[in-house]
Write a structure and sequence with these properties.
The protein is an alpha/beta fold and 626 residues long. It folds into three domains: 216 residues, DNA primase, PRIM domain (Alpha-Beta Complex); 82 residues; 262 residues, Rossmann fold (3-Layer(aba) Sandwich), CATH 3.40.50.300. Helix content is 40%, strand content 15%. A nine-stranded mixed β-sheet has the order 11-10-12-13-9-14-15-16-17, sandwiched between helices. A four-stranded antiparallel β-sheet has the order 2-1-3-7, with helices on one face. Strand 12, helix 20 and strand 13 form a beta-alpha-beta unit. The longest helix is centred in the N-terminal third of the chain and has 19 residues. The chain is globular and about 85 Å long. The two termini are 59 Å apart.
């Protein structure tokens, strides 16, 4: 047993109301012939026993816990509806996480529900007081909209024991094989539940990479004060070599492609080693997403064809091509091969010629921040170069970036595209007005409501300060969507070349599947690629990790949140902090010192400057060099 110090459990024999019986789970035996027996989902350390002895109840315990499995409790008003839900969840585990369904523990609850238990070894759980919150976060990702009972993850929640009788139905909570729950009807399942059934051995399972990544991501999520513990909609965590055409088909297809899609799915599942009856059950689950669904006989025909012939559907198959994705690793591999040409190999003489032309044009194409000492050290941000601005939340990253954009718009008069992934466009405009006019946000709002005639002058001043600045108001953009927006803006909105792209902020971008660390690292590299491909200067904001503490401490290069790769992918890294941010007197002062450190500079020395931050107006101006 893993973590033997976590041996205490609470049990209830004869109904959940008969709880508060803390026992050693390694020694306790389930009583025979007594209906409605329960034990806690989790195991607990000695602190749990001490809490119980002190209070006389397990209620209120919030210390560390451990679980031998991750449970999914599926219930409904009818067993038919619950069975449909359970099949749906199993289908998603198979498709989204490549789980071997035969490694799961699946139970009929004894009345109107099903329990799916995923062994802890497949995730790599460790004891933690956060585990119940992690479980809730994972459940919202795994079930993808299927309604389940989330209270099962509460810290001291009871769970019905296997092979014990349900007091109302008289049926037992019995284990089911994957093929049984996918293939049998409700009456056949009820028949199996009239007596206890043999339980599978709880031998150790191997780690599932996708489930392990999900666990690590959700653990980081509940640890983070910046994110909610559960998010409603997240991207699937898929293997890096997933064939995305099959995942698209599994979302359901329309009339006219259902037969072809069914055959390809049947062949796909057959190649994964599933027997025919399990493949049929999976197709039945998929068929519910079709519009309209296929007849049962057509599904059986597809399975029979798959197992009686040798098919090998590849990337040139018309059905799979219709569901292909730009993110597919096979497509990316082909794109890479098309890019590897002799024309990309330069002699030093050819490199000299390109450099000579590059430098001649560069003076007109560099982007300057508008702060003398920083610009002198950085020598401007050239097309293809990336600058990261890193700070703790609340320090003033967005205000700093809007001041930079204003300098670029006024001094260089070039098109700027600003991706506001966090704040709506109306808030960005109000901030731009504060910087341009020296008015507080509350005052501007009040004057608009009163229809102050001077507002037209303030609007005009802001538009002059931010001329040729365009804002994209869309959250959770992928790298591909960011790229497409830039191209679209140049072609249809701005109608000339964008010179500076700004992203607020990296943590609001959406990446490919993996942990938060992997996604953030990949995005940082992709933004560098984007700057080079589209020949733009790029600035993005990034939050520090908890090592950044309050925002008053100096920022260092290793503080980037969720990644150690971010600083490697950038040409420049700026760290921001406000030394007096926690001081009471600073809150009363209209001005505060903003420190900016040039932490990485590919083209010159590092430096640190002290700027003046007028908080009410969000203006940031040069103060002095340090």
């Amino acid at each position: 047993m893993k973590y033997p110090d976590y041996k205490w459990i609470d049990v209830a024999v004869g109904g959940p109301h008969k709880r508060n019986n803390v026992v050693d789970g390694t020694k306790w035996k389930v009583p025979a012939n007594i209906p409605d027996c329960f034990k806690t989902v989790y195991r607990y350390p000695d602190a749990f026993l001490e809490h119980f002895r002190k209070t006389g109840s397990v209620s209120g315990y919030n210390g560390p816990v451990y679980a031998d499995y991750f449970p999914i409790d599926i219930d409904d008003t009818s067993l038919e509806a619950a069975l449909d839900k359970a099949r749906n969840v199993l289908n998603q585990l198979l498709v989204n996480y490549e789980v071997n369904l035969e490694e799961l523990w699946i139970f009929f609850s004894g009345k109107k529900g099903f329990h799916i238990l995923i062994p802890a070894d497949m995730f790599g759980f460790e004891p933690s007081p956060l585990l119940p919150r992690v479980f809730k976060a994972m459940a919202s990702r795994i079930v993808q909209g299927v309604q389940i009972d989330p209270t099962i993850y509460d810290t001291v929640r009871l769970f019905r024991l296997a092979n014990t009788k349900h007091g109302e139905s008289g049926l037992y909570k019995v284990p089911l094989e994957a093929r049984e729950i996918l293939h049998l009807g409700v009456e056949e399942i009820r028949e199996l539940a009239k007596a206890p059934r043999k339980l599978e051995s709880t031998s150790e399972r191997s780690e599932n990479p996708s489930l392990a990544a999900l666990y690590r991501e959700c653990l980081a999520l509940v640890n983070s004060p910046q994110q909610p513990a559960v998010e409603e909609k997240r991207e699937r965590i898929l293997p890096k070599d997933a064939k995305l055409c099959y995942y698209s088909i599994l979302e359901g297809v329309h009339e006219g492609e259902r037969d072809n899609a069914a055959l390809r799915l049947a062949v796909h599942f057959k190649k994964q080693g599933f027997p025919g009856n399990v493949v049929l059950g999976l197709l039945q689950g998929w068929n519910r997403h079709n519009s309209p669904p296929l007849e049962e006989s057509e599904l059986e025909k597809a399975v029979n064809q798959a197992f009686s012939h040798e098919y090998d559907f590849g990337c040139n198959d018309e059905t799979l091509k219709a569901h292909c994705s730009e993110k597919c690793y096979l497509k990316r591999r082909k794109d890479l091969e098309s890019r590897i040409t002799a024309q990309k190999i330069y002699s030093m003489q050819e490199a000299r010629d390109k450099y000579h032309e590059y430098v001649k044009e560069l003076g007109l194409r560099k982007i300057y921040l508008g702060y003398h000492y920083l610009d002198k050290a950085m020598r401007g941000i050239a097309p293809g170069e990336v600058c990261e601005i890193m700070a703790r939340a609340g320090v003033g990253k967005t205000a700093f970036l809007l001041n930079i954009i204003r300098h670029v718009a006024l001094d260089q008069k070039v098109p700027v595209l600003f991706f506001s992934l966090e704040q709506p466009v109306v808030q960005i405009f109000e901030r731009a007005m504060q910087i341009s006019t020296g008015c507080e946000g509350a005052e501007l709002e009040k004057r608009v409501r009163k229809q102050d005639p001077e507002m037209s002058d303030l609007y005009e001043l802001t538009l002059q300060n931010y001329k040729d600045v365009y804002v994209v108001d869309e959250d959770f953009l992928t790298y591909e969507e960011l790229r497409d927006f830039i191209i679209l803006a140049e072609r249809e909105k701005i109608q000339r070349k964008v010179r500076l792209v700004c992203v607020d902020y990296l943590g609001r971008m959406s990446g490919e599947y993996g942990t938060a660390y992997e996604v953030t690292s990949a995005l940082a590299k992709l933004l560098k690629r984007l700057a080079k491909e589209l020949d733009v200067a790029l600035i993005y904001l990034h939050q520090t990790s908890r090592a950044g503490r309050t925002g008053a401490e100096p920022v260092t290069l290793d503080m980037a949140r969720d990644s150690g790769v971010v600083e490697e992918a950038c040409d420049f890294v700026l760290g921001l902090w406000r030394p007096d941010i926690e001081k009471q007197e600073a809150h009363k002062s209209p001005e505060e010192e903003l420190k900016v450190a040039l932490l990485k500079n590919r083209k010159g020395p590092l430096c640190q400057v002290s700027l003046k931050f007028k908080k009410s107006y969000l203006t940031i101006t040069q103060w002095e060099a340090v």
